[in-house]
Structures are given as structure tokens and as C-alpha cells.
Amino acid sequence: MLSDVQLIGTTGSRPGAMGFLTDTTLCIGCKACEVACKQWNQLPMDNFGWTGHSYDHTGDLGATTWRHVAFIERLDGADGQRVDVMPPFQSHWLMMSDVCKHCVRAGCLEACPTGAIIRTEFDTVVIQQEICNGCGYCVPACPFGVPELSLFDGKAHKCTLCYDRVTAGLEPACAKACPTDSIQFGPVEHLLERARQRVADLHARGVTSAYIYGDRAVGGTHGIDGLNALFILTAEPEVYNLPAAPELPQDKVGRAFLSTLGAALALGVAAVAALRRL
Fold first, then answer.
1. In degrees, to the nearest 5, what angle opens at C-alpha 22 toward C-alphas 142 and 30?
2. Residue 202 and residue 207: Cα distance in Å, rounded?
3. How far apart are CA 159 and CA 10, in angstroms?
4. DSSP letters of 252-272?
5. What pLDDT does residue 2 have?
6. H or E segment at 67?
7. How does pLDDT run across 74-120, given as a tens digit for each residue?
8. Residue 211's closest CA among 248, 107, 219?
């Protein structure tokens, strides 16, 4: 078994796995990836109203939003006011283009009772719409909250990593449209090496908070064994609405059963003791 230190910068991705590397230090929040995703996959538009907590109108990933650029306003001053000194590659905003993580061990795939969710030859995770019956089991099984049931057809939807484009030898629409190369596509083993080098470069340039999210140490925790969509972050995962130590819900069933059994036994003992006093 690998130690905690050995887990850093490694994933359990299968040979030939393809994926994303999203470098948040290069994201400018233009949302070209969101638009390209919607155009290529013919997804309907999102809400045009204010969310009430951000300038971002999209809000979150969903059945019709397979790429989502989060706008995270930084108010780091002790008094909650705008700070006037920032580290390199940082502004008063953090931008991150979120997407399905195509987990090495995917909770949605394990929970699907119909076989609608499959792992492709690229090691990506895809929902086959002609088989999905809309049961929704995949929704709570994802620790990242990615799949969502559509209000239009009642089926679960999420990123396919542009399976049709990748099959044709093209990169996914979001990566193709990104003007800063914040989103990069390729073999996961190459992306991971690129991410390690980028983090080392950022550290050398003063951004010592940079790290990889999606390796076995951070993001690919609790048996998920890594992600095929990696991220370079400069703040805690929770700041980007990502779980610090995601865990597959089905792995909690045993502990929940034992807790329930223990509670039942305790209640039984208490009931017997109470009856003896009568």
C-alpha cells in the first residue's frame, strides 16, 4: 500500500485513459468552454437571471450544463474588504471551469441498475441515453454532484467528454475553444506529468499554494483512486465547491448498517431494562 506522500501526484487511471487538465491559474472566466460545449452538444440555454451570490449566471453543473465556469470572489481581508496585495497569478477572483471528473472508480456507473452508464475505450464515463430509464440512482452516487435528471426528458445527463469528437480524433469542444489553454486534453499520464511540472513552476514563481486536485491524495480519495479530469488549484477545494476528501456513498452503507444495528440493540436493551422495573 502506498503511503500518503506516495499518493501525491499519482492516479490509478488505466493505460490509454484520456482526460482533462484544467489549470485554474490560466482561466480568465470567458466561458468560451461553456458556449462551445452547448453548441456542439446542442444543449439548451441556462438561466439569464441573477443567482444572488455571484456574477455567474449558470450557477452549477447540471443536465444542460456540462461545463461550468465558477466565479469566486475573493474577500480575504480580515474586515471582509477588498485586499490590495495579491500573490502572483491571482486576482480578486478565482475562476475554475468545472466538469465531470470521469472518476477512475465511478460511483454513478456502479449505482446504475440498467447498464446505461458505461466506461468507454478512452476510460471515460458515458450515459447511454437510449438505455437510461431516469431512475436517478446515479445522482446521489456521485460525490461531486455531476449527473442530473433533465426536466425535458426525465433522463440523467452529464459530460460525455465529447465522445463523438474524440472518436473522430478531435479534442473536446471545451478544450478546443479555450483561448488560454486553461483546459488541456490528452492522455491522463501525460496530463499528470504536465500538472506536476506546472505546480513545480508555480511554486518556484511564488505560488506555493498551487497543487493538483484529482490525484490519489486529493480528490481521488476513499477508493475513487484518482480522476481523469485533473485540476490545478491555489485554494482549498471547498473554495471551488469541490469536496476535500470525496467518498463514494455506497462505501458508507456498511458503516450505516452497523450504526443502525447498534442503535437497535441499544434500544432493545433499554426496553428490556425498562420492562423489568415494572
1. 105
2. 5
3. 24
4. GHHHHHHHHHHHHHHHHHHHH
5. 58
6. strand 67-73
7. 776 667 677 777 777 667 789 999 999 999 999 999 999 999 999 99
8. 219
User: Is the Cβ–Cβ distance between 173 and 36 less than 8 Å?
Assistant: yes
Cell of 42: 446542442
pLDDT at 158 over 60: yes
* Residue 4 pLDDT exceeds 70: no
Do residues 102 and 125 make contact, with C-beta atoms less than 8 angstroms apart? yes
Query: Which cell numbers hold the place of 113?
Result: 441498475
Quick count: other Cβ atoms within 10 Å of Cβ 271?
Answer: 10
Q: Where are the alpha helices (DSSP H) in 225-252?
A: none
Q: Residue 231 pLDDT more than 60?
A: yes
Q: How many CB atoms lie within 10 A of CB 200?
A: 11
Collect all residues with Cβ–Cβ distance below 8 Å to 264 and sequence separation of at least 6.
none
How far is 45 from 58, CA to CA, in rounded Å?
A: 9
Q: How far is residue 23 from each of residues 89, 119, 195, 198, measured CA to CA in Å?
A: 11, 25, 8, 9
